[in-house]
Design a protein that fits this description.
This protein is mainly α and about 290 residues long. Helices cover about 35% and strands about 5% of the residues. It has 9 helices and 4 strands, in the order αββααββαααααα. The chain has helices at about 1-25, 90-95, 100-120, 170-175, 185-200, 210-220, 230-240, 265-270, 275-285; strands at about 35, 60, 135, 140-145. The strands form 2 sheets. A two-stranded antiparallel ribbon has the order 1-2. It is globular and about 55 Å long.
């Protein structure tokens, strides 16, 4: 009787263990990475006593979401496991919506400003601010990504040089191969905001690289006549050829009239309500549901 009871308990334990493992797999089937069962001691998957237990063998590669210019997911290379930003990029949003309404432009621009000021206060210049590198999380808040070209230790007295970034978003001083500082990020922000509000760059945006460079370095930005007056004024200040007179460097950008309705403290604490309308439109086209407020 004792032997039969022992075997019964063993079968029950195995059954519960199997169910737990199934639940683990199912709970992650909509994620990018799923966690396997704990490695069994004594096997080749055992991380050893000195390991924290976080091991690449515990994860399964399900899908490639994208590739960067300097990196590619591979079974033979190291992985960075990051948060999945389900809202997508601003580029994808604009491709879907054409252009954004002014309240959305104001909110996203203000959150990008917070992100840039966070970096610049630490003497870090991003150098590749563009629609593709501005993501949105599931709650509708902005995330700046891809700091692969970022440079630290940059100040007005310790400038750097080098044509780095994405040509259509590069500041004139970068394209002209002059020394530059964090002012280049404010120029790139101007291009981003123009793309959000007007659906296009205020400079030549065709496929001819040399013409893009000529337009940015020699021409003044052009905006649609229907653009909001305060927004146009903001863009003109961000896209000044002289980096020392560029808004964000020359004056506190938070005080610009375009941001009159922004409560900066609430925004930094992520208490401000994001504009969900563009996301709902994106998700509806994919037959998905936006989570209820």
């Amino acid at each position: 009787m004792a032997s039969n009871g022992h075997e019964k308990r063993k079968r029950e334990e195995e059954s519960v263990s199997g169910l737990t493992n199934i639940k683990k797999k199912r709970s992650g089937e909509n994620n990018i990475i799923t966690e396997h069962e704990e490695p069994t001691a004594g096997t080749s998957q055992d991380p050893g006593p000195s390991d924290s237990g976080f091991h690449i063998s515990r994860f399964t590669r399900l899908q490639t979401l994208g590739k960067g210019g300097f990196g590619e997911q591979s079974a033979n290379k190291a992985y960075f496991i990051m948060e999945y930003l389900s809202g997508g990029s601003l580029r994808a949003m604009i491709r879907m919506c054409g252009r954004l309404d002014i309240s959305s432009v104001r909110f996203y621009t203000a959150e990008i400003v917070c992100g840039l000021q966070f970096l610049h206060q630490r003497n870090i210049v991003h150098r590749d601010i563009k629609l593709d590198n501005i993501m949105v999380d599931r709650d509708g808040h902005i995330r700046l990504i891809d700091l692969g070209l970022a440079q630290d230790g940059v100040t007005s007295s310790n400038k750097i040089c080098g044509r780095t970034g994405t040509v259509k978003y590069m500041a004139p001083e970068v394209l002209l191969e002059k020394e530059y500082d964090t002012a280049v990020d404010w120029w790139s922000l101007g291009i981003v905001v123009s793309r959000m509000a007007a659906g296009q760059s205020p400079f030549y945006h065709g496929s001819k690289k040399e013409k893009v460079i000529e337009s940015i370095t020699t021409e003044q930005p052009k905006f649609p006549s229907w653009l909001d007056a305060n927004l146009k004024h903001l863009l003109e200040r961000l896209l000044r050829k002289n980096p020392e007179k560029r808004l964000g460097v020359y004056k506190n950008i938070r005080g610009h009239p375009f941001f009159t309705t922004i409560d900066w403290e609430e925004l930094e604490l992520k208490r401000s309500r994001p504009p969900f309308k563009p996301f709902r439109r994106l998700l509806e086209n994919k037959n998905l549901q936006w989570p209820e407020d």
